[in-house]
Amino acid sequence: MSCTSPVIVALDFSTVEDAINLAKQLDPTKCRVKIGKELFTVTGPKIVEELQKIGFEVFLDLKFHDIPNTTAMAVKVAASMGVWMVDIHCVGGLAMMQACRNVLDQMNSKTLLIGVTVLTSLGLEDLQQLSITKTPEQQVLSLAQLAAEARLDGLVSSAQEARALKLNFPQLKLVTPGIRPVGASKHDQQRIVTPAQAMLDGSDYLVIGRPITKAVNPPQALEDILISLQ
Ligand SMILES: O=C(O)c1cc(=O)[nH]c(=O)n1[C@@H]1O[C@H](COP(=O)(O)O)[C@@H](O)[C@H]1O
């Protein structure tokens, strides 16, 4: 059965056992799962297969960022594993994004190619430290312009930019981490939004990690979030 929920649960764990244990408490019709750098580095591709076997669509979040050929070949391998979504950093540039698009087109792949704009852990001062004089929203919008030109399927940004992105780039799917239910800890996130507000503002998918994975009762935490969206 395919998943219609907007929630993607970030399985940020350091062992296969912990990731599978959490995933098995969740229902693949109620969320998708995300494999990030920590989990993939320790497990390699077998975790993708294991999660697919128990019915989950997988977002392989390795945020590739390299020269065009290297990045496109990494995207090709990810797509050949049958992942639902893969991401690359937009700051890799237009040629890099186009190379990734082309490789997926040549494979007739259905894997969604998503460009990371400005990480949700970064605020205005962090951008200034990087010699970026734009606000986070301005920087997100200018990277989105390049991503649209490269015909990416969507973007990762904070939901704080969702409204402006949907207005200017309605064809792009918006994947928004930095989601925090009312009262939840921010942890290392800066540009945070509640689940319901993110959906109202135009997010298509909500990436949620610790508010679910570190909850006393993860399936209930997911359920509470889904109820808050109704
Ligand atoms: O690409 C991502 O998923 C991502 C991009 C971004 O800008 N910010 C961000 O937090 N993420 C990921 O989203 C997840 C957020 O986890 P929590 O902060 O625990 O909800 C982590 O796995 C991050 O790696």
Automatic annotation (TrEMBL):
Belongs to the OMP decarboxylase family. Type 1 subfamily. SMART domains: OMPdecase. Residues 6-225 form the Orotidine 5'-phosphate decarboxylase domain. Its EC number is 4.1.1.23. This is Orotidine 5'-phosphate decarboxylase. InterPro entries: Aldolase_TIM, OMPdecase, OMPdecase_AS, OMPdecase_bac, OMPdeCOase_dom, RibuloseP-bd_barrel. It catalyses: orotidine 5'-phosphate + H(+) = UMP + CO2. Substrate binds at residues 12, 34, 61-70, 120, 180, 189, 209-210. Pathway: Pyrimidine metabolism; UMP biosynthesis via de novo pathway; UMP from orotate: step 2/2. It comes from the Bacteria. The lineage of its organism: Bacteria, Pseudomonadati, Pseudomonadota, Gammaproteobacteria, Pseudomonadales. SUPFAM superfamilies: Ribulose-phoshate binding barrel. It is an enzyme of class 4 (lyase).
